[in-house]
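Lab notebook, bench 4. The sequencing result for the construct came back, and we need a structural model before the next group meeting so we can plan mutations. Quick request posted to the team channel:

Model the 3D structure of this chain.
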Amino acid sequence: MINEGISRRGLMLVLSSPSGTGKTAIAHKILDSDPNFFLSVSATTRAPRPGEIDGRDYYFVSRARFDEMVEKGDLLEHAEFCGNCYGTPRAPVEKSLSEGRDILFDIEWQGTRQLAKAARADLVCVFILPPSLAELRRRLVLRKQDSDDVIDKRMATAESEISHWNEYDYVIVNRDLDESVAAVRSILTTERLKRVRQTGMEDYVRHTVSEAK
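Done. Here's the predicted structure in token form:
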């Protein structure tokens, strides 16, 4: 445990990358190994799919309710995709941060920009790059989830997404999954130790100095 007994403000970790780069695999390994991490739950206007639970997978809301949340500033970021709206509710995120819990966001550069405007001090953003575009295409082909046409579209989108790499705090080239996960964990250790996040450090130091006198 880092600085046991000292209270800490949580952080928001954003992982972004083109599809097929390995972002989801990295995210799962971080979530599975770190009990202080929670995956951000988005609000959406789409209907629940079989097995999905409100509040666990998504907060399922009507379009009218979603528009109201946008109007009131209740979302940290939001976007529309394929006719459905998605967004990050502000209240549960702020509650988790104040309790010292960290939140993982699997979003792209547009959402990252919005989060940066809303809460830059709490944000740690990491962009995951493939070793090469040729390797990215090979990974997309090997996973056998998309047709050739869809893969071509993903590759075209990937080049656009990669152009935003320099908007992120950290950049990792995912040549090896375990090494990339280790790099993310190192980033987390550093960010959690930052003075501004260790909200209980002032009291800790004052108490330590008093004991020494």
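Residues 5 and 200 are 8 Å apart (CA to CA).
Will bring this to the meeting.
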